[in-house]
Amino acid sequence: MLPLKWEKKLQEYMKSRERWFSELMQAGSTWQGRRKFLKMAAMAAGFAASKSFTPHSFQLVDVVSSDDRKPFTFAYISDSHLYEKTLNERFVRQLQRAVADINALDPQPDFVLYGGDLAQLGQPGELKLGAQILKEIKAPVKMMVGEHDWFLDMGEVWRELFGPPYYSFDHKGVHFITLMSVNEKDFWTAKGYSPMERMRIVAGLDDARQSPFEVGEEEREWLKQDLQKVDRKTPIVVFSHSPLYKLYRNWNFWTEDAEEVQALLRPFEKVTVIHGHTHQVLTHRIGNIHFHGMLSTAWPWPYAPTGLPKLTVQMNRQNPFNQTDGLGDGTVEVHATGRVDKHYNLWNRNPMRVSARYLDSEGAEDRPPATTLPSY
Amino acid sequence: MEKKLKVLVVLLLLLAFYVVNAQQHPSVKDEDKVMTVKLCDGETYVQLEGRLPNERLSRSEAEAVTNELMAKWLAKQPPAVAAAWTKEYQEGKKKAQQKAQAKAGDESVKQEKQTYEFTKRDIQMWERELKKLIDYGDQIFHDDQLIGSTNGVSCAMCHPNAANTHPETYPKYQIQLQRVALLRDMINWCIENPSRGKKLEPDDPKMRALEAYIMSQRKGVPMEYGKH
Ligand SMILES: [Fe+2]
Ligand SMILES: [Fe+2]
């Protein structure tokens, strides 16, 4: 329980947040915004047409009817951080293990989300190796980009291999949006960093020389336009590499414009955000939005020293003598209601399920079992 | 002008003592017992009855003699010269007194503070040296090459800001190592296994720097050796 004083402060904060959100929503449809959207849509369409391999081309979204929803499952793999095979075979084997896990699912998931950070240092060799391994996945794959994939060539090779970094699609009555949430304001030009230096700085989780992650104005404008065509009752699932809230700035467990993005999602009844980057079991809820982290196949991150959301039931810290401990993949079970149960398939432990009921009840019901060995 | 006067006074004093000590009278009767102290102008002098010419004067006696000599010399000077000299002499004396008082004050403080103390400069120097070692450790911790990794895995990849290294929990028994492990044993375990490098000697500068960096990230955390 929070002390009374804090509880009051929290309430005040929530009230001011409310005001702020409604103002933001009213500022909505200006002619500048619309013009920008049209330009972007044309760009993306042109891009899609120019590529033969487009796992997810840009499409204008039809309003989704809410009557014919059936439950379904999709799976995820995330944060494999591949080096070239000759340098680090272990990370390659671990991604292959996840691919085998997913391929062994019966029934098969409707599709598989790859959660970003496929490569470690954005090298073409690393990304191509990743693409090759992901081709083994039997179900369709939806790709998301992570900062490790991006900052060597600002996404050039990644886009060539996988298409546009943000897009939306509809599936069985749910509107899905994949964001590119790891843009950073230019910290390199003034300092004269080379592309490789820039990549290494961003790859350093605790490297303070970099900027915070952000979705950015342009993409937020696209998101706004995308959402205008979606019924408020339609469940929305957003994929973002960074958590779409502010958890811990020092490690970029953070999205600088999280509040602006949340504001756009706020009018919808049921929103779920599935994010990568944090390499751990992570659970949060802000109003109508449920947030879930994804496991990594490369290494687990420790929990941030501050800012951990109240609803997070921590996964056991990694056993240092077992290199695949704390890693894994998982599935997301989408109910007919549009709310989701998040399954963490931890490789050396009991699987964890964080249910919609747990989040809906603000942690009062269906609490996942806690570890006796939390982080230090 | 004033400087010249100062030099002159010093020379005079030196000469006065020289005269006192230099005059040799191996055997003298009581009625011959007179000590003559001359100023370096060769004219002004003071005579001390009942003292042997080569006798050593006490400090206060010698001061009295030089004061008298100077007074006599001053009396013969034009008033302007005398006034300038007097002023400078008094100021010099005042400064010397203040200095002596300050020193005495210091000593009394020292006595209250026990056996030894260190200055701001000492602390600055120590902090600088400490920071150097910690920064070197920071650098190694974040660099797979420096740690000798052969697979690109650096320490910070799993331990941002040395999180989850919990140095405060060592020593503790590690069944996998089959002995009580120190922090350095776990550092070496990580170097050899996840990073596929060669382990460091306990006294290797890199090991010392890594320990320093890891500890520096846990300042204020209570020691809890043996905790699992
Ligand atoms: Fe990652
Ligand atoms: Fe990431």
What does this structure look like?
The complex is a heterodimer of chains A (376) and B (228). With 376 residues, chain A is α/β, with parallel strands linked by helices. Chain A has two domains: 4-65, no CATH class; 72-360, 4-Layer Sandwich (Purple Acid Phosphatase, chain A, domain 2), CATH 3.60.21. Chain A has helices spanning 4-26, 31-50, 89-103, 124-134, 147-150, 156-162, 195-203, 217-228, 258-265, 356-360, and strands spanning 72-77, 112-114, 141-143, 167-171, 174-178, 183-184, 213-214, 236-240, 271-275, 283-286, 289-293, 328-334, 340-346, 352-354. Chain B is mostly helical and 228 residues long. Chain B has a two-stranded antiparallel sheet. A two-stranded antiparallel ribbon of chain B has the order 3-4. In chain B, a hairpin with a 6-residue loop joins β1 (34-38) and β2. In chain B, α4 crosses α6. The model of chain B has no long low-confidence stretch (mean pLDDT 86). Bound molecules: fe (ii) ion (2 copies). One fe (ii) ion (FE2) binds next to α5 of chain A.
